[in-house]
Amino acid sequence: MKRQVAKYLLDIEAVTLRPDNPYTWSSGLKAPIYCDNRLIISHPEIRSKIADSFVALIEKHFPNVEAIAGTATAGIPHAALVADRMNLPMVYVRSKAKAHGKGKQIEGRLSAETKVVVIEDLISTGGSVLNAVEALKDGGATILGCAAIFTYELQKGKEAFTEISLNVHTLSDFNTLVDVAAEEGKISNDSISELNDWCKDPESWSNVAFK
Prior knowledge:
Rossmann fold
């Protein structure tokens, strides 16, 4: 599954690799890879296959799930498709509570101790997932874990999830995608080395290689 999903992401250019001309993330960090999984919703066939893959992953790793939660905004469409396929309640979690109306951070309704799986489109440092998990716990939910489309496999994110013992599973990941891209001739051997160096220490790679 991870290889097939990686191929989907590369085919629709949801993930692009550019080691020689790195992207600048919103944090200011330079990166040879950029992931925009929002593009998936514009491709009906792949969108459907991603949803099916999510269902299979959740049924395998979180069989006791009682509700699906999507992270705002990119996790929402995938959470909606998964919840529909599994005939489960769905909520979504804002990055922060609204400053007007009822001041909600969680939209939808969950009963106390409902067993929830969080759906995310992309994991980098894990901040948005951790924020959603905290809000859901504050709302009384029991968090089984998180399912995401893709992870950069950054150490910072791994450590953050380990710290709170959060069970995270993804449909694909950085190393699988690099392997598939290499097999399809989308990147050179030198690019593979650059990508792996970045993944091991993105801050140093950004500061040293591209001052």
